[in-house]
UniProtKB/TrEMBL annotation, chain A:
Highest rank taxon of the organism: Bacteria
Similarity comment: Belongs to the ABC transporter superfamily.
UniProt name for this protein: ATP-binding protein
Record carries keyword Nucleotide-binding: yes
Species: Paramesorhizobium deserti
From TrEMBL, chain B:
PROSITE patterns: ABC_TM1 (PS50928)
NCBIfam families hit by this protein: HEQRo_perm_3TM
GO cellular component: ATP-binding cassette (ABC) transporter complex
Name of the protein in question: Amino acid ABC transporter permease
Chief location: membrane
Presence of the UniProt keyword Transmembrane helix in the record: yes
């Protein structure tokens, strides 16, 4: 078959009667950095959250490395996979959240170690060494023993990124990771993401930072009302938008 | 009032009171330990989306919290044997207080669970933890920190409830005090000393709980 890293086909998602994803198709190759932009309510975050089954979806398929995520089709019946299997599949991706979501009762290094010990079944020593390496990578080696409450927003977000990346995911999902940060803290987080991208990490980012999407991604997806409105390389998209909606959106955004 | 306080008769039996106090503490400790497990499972049941878990948990809490504990103690000790379940005095009391504390602790724990931001569970899911691992490593430790202040007063109140074991002749502190009262007729002195023992023990328990609270406080 294909060697697509991510393959989304005809994804449909509703909350009750409200359909928020109305048939989304998307593919990514190893090493791709794809930014999803669009106004709020367009379905960007929902699409991201379907990929690691934080949201259930009612139609279509999502494949990572060929594996169908979340659901099996048995005798034509769509059936949710077991909790254990879904947990295993979630480890194929890593996710960083808008609100960081660090575990407040654990130090930075313990936050990174938790998944390594519980999911990857590493020994505590191995996990600590790896966790410290990743904290170093995001510039926080000396903050390893600090609790989240003792770190700035930008530092917390970098720990959260280290926690996700340390699990060695095939694909990183970033969900508006700079939206909750004070403006002066945005850059340190973007720098970390950019350097991970340069190392060849495959990533899918939902972002409001148009300048960043322009610089870091090799493809941009514009979501509009639950569908992909337009997609292409950032240079063409930002300078020569094909649709009225994207032109409007870019005009109202910070990119200029 | 021509009553002269004379504690000497009470002091002579003081070791009996201390033995009673030790049993009171042991009863409370055993019952609360079981009650914490029952309460934790029930609390997760109460917040479950699954009605088959939520409804039985709700019924248990409603029945137990709306029955006076003395009635529960008498029921377990006198009525259960009629139904074929025969327990010794001490086992019967521990069982009753455990079931009773489970219902109260379930409500305390439920409050603590509701205060945990849902994003933390999602962060756990995103790194591939199972729901059970999330409950044991993230949700429960945070919930316990949330509820420590109210857990302290619940534990103290449950400790004081051990005095009701006197009703089925379990030789704890209140039972021993009543015995000394009857044997020595030093009514005022006996009950002053017994009360002081309860106050002192509860104060120590409260101080211990505050120390635990400080020790486990989330660094902000």
């Amino acid at each position: 078959m294909t060697n697509n890293l991510l393959e989304i086909r005809d994804l449909h998602k509703s909350y009750g009667a409200v359909e928020v994803l109305k048939g989304v198709d998307c593919t990514m190759q190893q090493g791709d950095v794809v930014s999803i932009i669009g106004s709020s309510g367009s379905g960007k975050t929902t699409m991201l959250r379907c990929i690691n089954m934080l949201e259930e979806f009612q139609g279509g398929t999502i494949r990572i490395d060929g594996q169908a995520i979340g659901y099996d089709v048995v005798n034509g019946q769509r059936r949710r996979k077991s909790e254990r299997e879904i947990a295993r599949q979630r480890a194929l991706t890593g996710m960083a959240f808008q609100q960081f979501n660090l575990f407040p009762h654990m130090t930075a290094v313990a936050n990174v170690m938790l998944g390594l010990v519980k999911v990857k079944k590493m020994s505590r020593d191995e996990a600590r060494t790896l966790a410290e390496t990743w904290l170093d990578r995001v510039g926080l080696r000396e903050r390893a023993e600090h609790y989240p409450g003792q770190l700035s927003g930008g530092q917390q977000q970098r720990v959260a990124i280290a926690r996700a990346i340390a699990m060695n995911p095939k694909l990183m999902l970033f969900d508006e990771v700079t939206s909750a940060l004070d403006p002066e803290l945005v850059n340190e987080v973007l720098q970390v993401i950019k350097s991970l991208a340069q190392d060849g990490m495959s990533m899918l980012l939902v972002t409001h930072e148009m300048r960043f999407a322009y610089e870091v991604s090799n493809r941009v997806i514009f979501m509009n009302q639950g569908r992909i409105g337009e997609e292409g390389n950032p240079r063409e998209m930002f300078h020569k938008p094909q649709t009225e909606r994207l032109a409007e959106f870019l005009k109202s955004s910070t990119f200029n | 009032m021509n009553y002269t306080l004379n504690f000497s008769a009470v002091w002579r039996s003081f070791d009996l009171l201390l033995e009673g106090l030790a049993l009171s503490l042991a009863l409370a400790f055993a019952a609360i330990a079981i009650g914490c497990v029952v309460g934790l499972i029930t609390a997760f049941g109460l917040i479950s989306k699954n009605g088959f878990l939520r409804r039985p948990a709700g019924i248990y809490v409603t029945i137990i919290r709306n029955t006076p504990i003395l009635v529960l103690i008498l029921f377990t000790y006198f009525a259960l044997p009629q139904m074929g379940v025969r327990l010794g005095k001490i086992e019967s009391f521990i069982f009753t207080l455990a079931i009773y504390s489970g219902a109260y602790l379930a409500e305390v724990f439920r409050g603590g669970l509701l205060a945990i931001p849902p994003g933390l569970r999602e962060a756990g899911l995103a790194i591939g933890l199972t729901n059970m691992q999330i409950r044991t490593s993230i949700i429960t430790p945070l919930m316990l920190r949330n509820v420590l202040p109210s857990l302290g007063s619940t534990i103290i109140s449950l400790f004081k409830d051990t005095s009701l074991a006197a009703a089925i002749a379990v030789p704890e502190l209140t039972f021993e005090a009543r015995k000394i009262n009857v044997e020595t007729f030093r009514v005022i002195e006996t009950w002053i000393v017994a009360s002081c023992l309860y106050v002192a023990t509860c104060s120590i328990l409260a101080a211990l709980m505050r120390a635990v609270e400080r020790r486990l406080a989330i660094v902000r």
